[in-house]
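Hi Prof. W.,

I finally got the Diaminopimelate decarboxylase prediction working! I wasn't sure whether to trim anything, so I left the full sequence exactly as given:
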Amino acid sequence: MDSQNLLKLAEQYGAPLYVYDAEKISAQYKRLTKAFKGVGSLRLNYAAKALSNINILRFMNHLGSGLDTVSIQEVKLGLMAGFKPESIIYTPNGVSLEEIEEAAALGVQVNIDNLSILEQFGSKHPDIPVCIRINPHVMAGGNSKISVGHIDSKFGISIHQIPHLLRIVELTKMNINGIHMHTGSDILDIDVFLYASEILFETAKNFKNLEFIDFGSGFKVPYKEGDIQTNIEELGKKLTVRFNEFCAEYGKELTLAFEPGKFLVSEAGYFLAKVNVVKQTTSTVFASVDSGFNHLIRPMLYGSGHEIINISNPKGKERYYSVVGYICETDTFGSNRRINEISEGDVLCFKNAGAYCFTMSSNYNSRYRPAEVLWYKGKAHLIRERETFDDILRNQVDAKDLFETPKAESIK
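And this is what came out:
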């Protein structure tokens, strides 16, 4: 995906536009499987929430991935995309017992993260295998909003509640076939991850019928040249040795599972936006684009730093710009960025736009969500059409008859 191809796609499909490079997704998938080649049984469950277009899910299935889902809708998308029920794990948080039962009825692997639902589900369905999500109380992640394994997190069953958990399992006679954790996104320190893994191994000893241990994901990818990233190869070597040791101690070969989302699709994504206005103030030069946090909210929500390049003028003199959107609130993609000189009408490219970008977009300000394109084997394939005004109105009910002006009574 070079600048010229991206520019042609912006001209062909219009901007704003999301573009995904299938070759990069495939390369990341192969990199992860290679890092854990020493494990007898490895399962990678792509985290659908990162990018849930059904064509992306079909491509993941084509690569051999399983699927990690967090809602009944993602479960159904996965089944429509061709995943077998047994290759889908369903890991919700705070949902009703009814939704969990609906997922279980579809044949997917259920993962439960609280004692209340665990007891209710086990009492009604003791024969359905269940995975348990443990909270190891380990702080990981580059931002508090995406760190989910600490002691105050709403996710998972606390390791301090293991005695209560075991009592529920014993009384309901339910079948626990998996143990799971997820410490958070943007893992920076492998040793912290390995420490949390030891807690998971220790917890796993309490269950005799395990089939897999799921270590979640959260691997950090680089957002700019020289950026820190999770050393997958080092993690693979260290965790493979320890996992194989545990399997020998446990007396059974288990499956090692991960749930990569951002790691697989983040770097494969590009977001293209056209510059509407270049505006000079007393202290700043703004480049205002035809988009906003309705399309790409991560910079405003997480403070994420997506690299921004001017693909219309790649050899221009570099200047400092604050790239902003058209939303009616503070809407900043990047402040004081060094970018090749920008003119009105230029197309800017936001990198690392594959994960949690389109999936978090909205119709705020009644704007349309953009189109999506998959670049596969050197060709562009439209996988989502740009929205229209009809889409804005699609589910609204026109109640105009409620507000008809009453007719004035005639004067007698």
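The domain at 269-387 is CATH 2.40.37.10 (Lyase, Ornithine Decarboxylase; Chain A, domain 1). Does that look reasonable to you?

Thanks,
D.
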